């Protein structure tokens, strides 16, 4: 059995929200990162993937369970583990060489050795000739190469990449990913294991020996899939396509209530809370996807990877839309396919008024937060209420930024279904005009 470099045993982490509530973000995470493997971590936004990476790097402590690095309990940042961030995190006033040398400086490495190592890392990642450039003089792809050189210069045994390619355009991201895999497969990297957080299913399947799928609320490993295909992999090969389909199916299983269906037993039995994270799906995109799904060649049923290509939507955008359609009963997710329901067919075929009514009806039936706001507005003599109590309710389980995002999603959906209105200037929620006297 290959040796484990980092081990998580029953790891849990909670954060305290602004109002003092403690929210579990990770629960019972068991994971071993072993020598010689690349592991990809996929999961919904906010499911705790970055938190798990930071715990593995020793940047934040776990509240529960054990974290071990080479068999020893982790205490503080681990020297043999480096991270690469989505945002590049470069110092704008330092040159490429100075940015790369930083990690070595902090460790007291003598100057001559620092320079030699930085030069080697810069050459390895293909940036020779740009040592004296400032970050602003580089393209996004080159900046991320600096971020990777800075992570590699300390010769880490473990490289943790947190959405390292997602801020780059598709081609640049693919090229950088391929270069890293070439370095890894040819043994030129000092690194012995990589963990890659991604929102891109194809990227995960192209890179990893194992794909872990995270569940949300609280974050935990829901399932894993091993990928036993030699690299480099052909994204169009039948084997890769089949695995991509399988990962889509696993990620969308139980999508109507993604956080709960595969959840821990008590959570599955609990009623759906008002403060659930809604998939951040734009209404125009939901309409567009339903229309695309209804037309040839799909005729009501589509393979998600094909739909992603046809709609020009990356996974990070497509999956929330697919989840939202499933939540509202307009489509259903089944084995990695999206299928129009009978109601979804009526919606697509309907004129504007019918679409509005069906959408509103489904919101009230399936989104407890929207039904709750509508009920409160109907009870209020003025047909109005401020958004503050709703935000307070949401922040019992979500942080402030997420609470705001959930309210905004609820508002855009509710406006489309004419369930309620929102005044962006005053933050007032109110019944739609002409609707004050009626109840649905
Ligand atoms: N320092 C912190 N204080 C309070 N809450 C935090 C902190 N760090 C993360 N969180 C919360 O923990 C949850 C998980 O966040 P995390 O960034 O780990 O998720 P993620 O799966 O990486 O999300 P994304 O894919 O959007 O990057 C979120 O609700 C986030 O707001």
From TrEMBL:
<keyword id="KW-1003">Cell membrane</keyword>
<feature type="domain" description="ABC transporter">
    <location>
        <begin position="6"/>
        <end position="241"/>
    </location>
</feature>
<dbReference type="InterPro" id="IPR003593">
    <property type="entry name" value="AAA+_ATPase"/>
</dbReference>
<dbReference type="GO" id="GO:0005524">
    <property type="term" value="F:ATP binding"/>
</dbReference>
<keyword id="KW-0472">Membrane</keyword>
<keyword id="KW-0547">Nucleotide-binding</keyword>
<dbReference type="Pfam" id="PF09821">
    <property type="entry name" value="AAA_assoc_C"/>
</dbReference>
<keyword id="KW-0067">ATP-binding</keyword>
<dbReference type="InterPro" id="IPR003439">
    <property type="entry name" value="ABC_transporter-like_ATP-bd"/>
</dbReference>
<comment type="similarity">
    <text>Belongs to the ABC transporter superfamily.</text>
</comment>
<dbReference type="InterPro" id="IPR027417">
    <property type="entry name" value="P-loop_NTPase"/>
</dbReference>
<dbReference type="InterPro" id="IPR050166">
    <property type="entry name" value="ABC_transporter_ATP-bind"/>
</dbReference>
<dbReference type="InterPro" id="IPR018632">
    <property type="entry name" value="AAA-associated_dom_C"/>
</dbReference>
<protein>
    <submittedName>
        <fullName>Nitrate/sulfonate/bicarbonate ABC transporter ATP-binding protein</fullName>
    </submittedName>
</protein>
<keyword id="KW-0813">Transport</keyword>
<dbReference type="InterPro" id="IPR017871">
    <property type="entry name" value="ABC_transporter-like_CS"/>
</dbReference>
<dbReference type="Pfam" id="PF00005">
    <property type="entry name" value="ABC_tran"/>
</dbReference>
């Amino acid at each position: 059995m290959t040796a484990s470099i980092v081990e998580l045993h029953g790891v849990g982490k909670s954060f305290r929200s602004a109002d003092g509530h403690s929210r579990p973000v990770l629960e019972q995470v068991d994971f071993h990162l072993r020598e010689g493997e690349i592991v990809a971590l996929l999961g919904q936004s906010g499911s705790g993937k970055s938190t798990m990476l930071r715990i593995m790097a020793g940047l934040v402590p776990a509240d529960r369970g054990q974290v071990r690095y080479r068999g020893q309990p982790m205490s503080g940042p681990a020297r043999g583990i480096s991270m690469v961030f989505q945002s590049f995190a470069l110092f704008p006033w330092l040159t490429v060489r100075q940015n790369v040398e930083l990690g070595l400086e902090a460790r007291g490495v003598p100057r001559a050795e620092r320079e030699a190592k930085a030069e080697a890392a810069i050459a390895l990642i293909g940036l020779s000739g740009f040592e004296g450039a400032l970050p602003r003089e580089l393209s996004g792809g080159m900046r991320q190469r600096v971020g990777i050189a800075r992570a590699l210069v300390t010769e880490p045994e473990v490289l943790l990449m947190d959405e390292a390619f997602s801020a780059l355009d598709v081609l640049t991201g693919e090229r950088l990913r391929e270069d890293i895999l070439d370095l890894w497969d040819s043994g030129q990297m000092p690194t012995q294991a990589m963990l890659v957080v991604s929102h891109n299913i194809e990227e995960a399947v192209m890179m990893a020996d194992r794909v872990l799928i995270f569940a949300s609320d609280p974050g935990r490993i829901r399932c894993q899939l091993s990928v036993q295909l030699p690299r480099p992999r052909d994204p169009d090969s039948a084997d890769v396509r089949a695995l991509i389909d399988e990962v889509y199916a696993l990620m969308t299983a139980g999508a109507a209530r993604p956080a709960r269906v595969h959840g821990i037993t008590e959570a599955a039995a609990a009623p759906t809370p008002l403060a659930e994270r809604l998939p951040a799906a734009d209404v125009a995109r939901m309409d567009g996807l339903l229309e695309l799904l209804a037309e040839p060649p799909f005729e009501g049923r589509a393979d998600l990877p094909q739909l992603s290509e046809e709609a020009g939507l990356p996974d990070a955008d497509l999956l929330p839309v697919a989840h939202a359609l499933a939540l509202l009963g307009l489509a259903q997710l089944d084995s990695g396919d999206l299928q129009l329901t009978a109601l979804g067919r009526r919606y697509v075929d309907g004129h504007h008024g019918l679409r509005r009514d069906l959408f509103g009806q489904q919101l009230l039936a399936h989104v407890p937060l929207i039904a709750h706001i509508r009920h409160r507005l109907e009870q209020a003599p003025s047909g109005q209420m401020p958004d503050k109590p709703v935000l307070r309710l949401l922040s019992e389980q979500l942080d402030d930024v997420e609470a705001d995002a959930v309210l905004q999603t609820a508002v855009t959906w509710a406006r489309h279904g004419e369930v309620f209105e929102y005044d962006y200037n005053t933050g007032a929620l109110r019944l739609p005009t002409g609707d004050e006297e009626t109840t649905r």
